[in-house]
Write a structure and sequence with these properties.
The protein is of the alpha+beta class. It has helices spanning 12-21, 52-56; strands spanning 25-26, 38-41, 47-50. The chain has a three-stranded antiparallel β-sheet.
């Protein structure tokens, strides 16, 4: 019997804390789900939208951050 896949769960506070660790902020005030775009700003002032899965990373993957700073 296969073990069911464990879904990663996030909340707005978790994303705001993660953004602050990266030197930025999560500007969104509403969390819908892990695939809904949220608004972020990096320490350089670039605003961008990413999903919680993109920011936090999928399973063992590394998350993304500001596309302008890291392009």
């Amino acid at each position: 019997m296969e073990t069911p896949k464990k879904k990663r769960t996030f909340d707005l506070n978790m994303l705001k804390e993660h953004a602050e660790k990266l030197g930025g902020k999560c500007l969104s005030e509403k969390y819908v789900n892990s695939t809904f775009n949220l608004l972020f700003v990096c320490k350089e002032g670039h605003k961008f939208r990413l999903t919680p899965l993109e920011v936090m990373g999928k399973k063992s993957g590394v998350g993304k951050w500001c596309p302008k700073c890291f392009s």
